[in-house]
Amino acid sequence: MSSNKLAMLIRVQKEREEKLQAQFVKAQQQFQLAEQKYQGLANYRTEYIQQSMQQGAIGLGGRLYNQYVAFISKLDEALSQQGRVVQQSRNVAEQRRQSWLKMQTKRKALEKLVEQAQQREQLLQQRQQQKLADEYAAQRFYQQQLAEHY
Predict the structure, then answer these.
(1) 63 or 72, higher pLDDT
(2) Domain 3-149, what architecture?
(3) Is the pLDDT of residue 85 over 90?
(4) Do 13 and 107 meet the contact criterion of CB atoms below 8 Å apart?
(5) What is the enclosing helix (H) or strand (E) of 1?
(6) pTM assigned to the model
(7) CB atoms within 10 A of CB 100
(8) pLDDT, position 46
(9) Using alpha carbons only, how large is the chain's radius of gyration in Å?
(10) Is the pLDDT of residue 58 over 60?
(11) Would you list the DSSP string of 32-67?
């Protein structure tokens, strides 16, 4: 395969790699956002419990206590759900990172092939030039030998 065709393949690979990198960055941002939401919920739950405990010293009626327990249960459910979102977004980000790195490896391999092809072409040209130079030198030597004998 000519180095021009390989160079075109590298350009295509670079475009794919850039697209995969952008997808990874987006997935990483979504993961970080999901993690922030999880931390926000966890912090809110902790603060709510602390405030309720301080108010609990005054005393909660039966109905308020039931509402408190129900609300904590809802917060726990939301935390559990957000935890699953965090794990899922972490998995997606890791998959995107792996895809990007795989494409990067392919591109580097193609670049190495192009470099090797260019080196082979250069070596071939050097050999051809050397052959022409040797033929020219041999021809000149032959002509000099003929000229000396006549």
Answers:
(1) 72
(2) Orthogonal Bundle (1.10)
(3) yes
(4) yes
(5) none
(6) 0.72
(7) 21
(8) 96
(9) 36
(10) no
(11) HHHHHHHHHHHHHHHHHHHHHHHHHTT---HHHHHH
